[in-house]
Structure formats: C-alpha cells, structure tokens
Amino acid sequence: MAFLIGASVSAVGSIAFLGLLVPHIVRILVGPAHRRLLSFSAIIGATLLLLADLLARTLFEPHEIPLGLITSLIGAPALI
Q1: Rounded to the nearest 5 degrees, what angle is found at the Cα of 32, between the Cα atoms of 50 and 18?
Q2: Quick one: which of 15, 33, 37, 52 could link to 70 by a disulfide (CB 3.0–4.6 Å)?
Q3: How does pLDDT run across 31-80, given as a tens digit for each residue?
Q4: 25-28 contact pairs (CB < 8 A, 24+)
C-alpha cells in the first residue's frame, strides 16, 4: 500500500495525497457508515482543497504559495 500511495503522489502531486487522507479523517468524524462516509468525504475533501487554495493565493498577497505546500502542511500531521 505504501508503494502505491508513493507512486500516486509522485505521479499526481501532493494534492492527491490530501485526497487519500480525507476519507480517514472523515471516518473519525462521521463513523463507519459508508453512505455518510462517501458523501461527507466528497464534501469535506472539496472544502478542504478549496480552503487550501484560498490560503495559497491570499496568505502572502503579492506572491502565490504553491498549493502542494499547503496541502502537505495539512496532510503530514494527519499521516503522522
């Protein structure tokens, strides 16, 4: 599994890393019911990525931070 995750992150970028982590975070919040898990994963994943993009564009106003930096700052503590 670690090799597959590493391959997907290296191919797509760290944004996919956040997409792999969101269902695990939602499972802690919502519980193991798959109906709610799937819908809340889509909503929370999209919201989290939108907020990360908003932060990347507006944190240092004249310059943009790479989105991968923000998503890795969110994803790394959750992985640890």
Answers
A1: 25
A2: 52
A3: 888 888 888 998 998 898 888 889 888 988 888 888 878 887 877 777 77
A4: 25/78
Report the distance separating Cα 77 and Cα 12, nearest Å.
Answer: 20
Residue positions counted in the chain? 80
Give the pair of three-digit tokens for residue 60.
């240092």
Contact 19, 45 (CB under 8 A): yes
How much is the pTM?
A: 0.70
Q: Please give the structure tokens belonging to residue 32.
A: 């193991």
CB-based burial label for 54 (10 Å; 0-12, 13-18, 19+): exposed
Token pair 């992150």 in the structure block, residue: 9
Phi, psi (deg, nearest 5) at residue 49: -70, -35
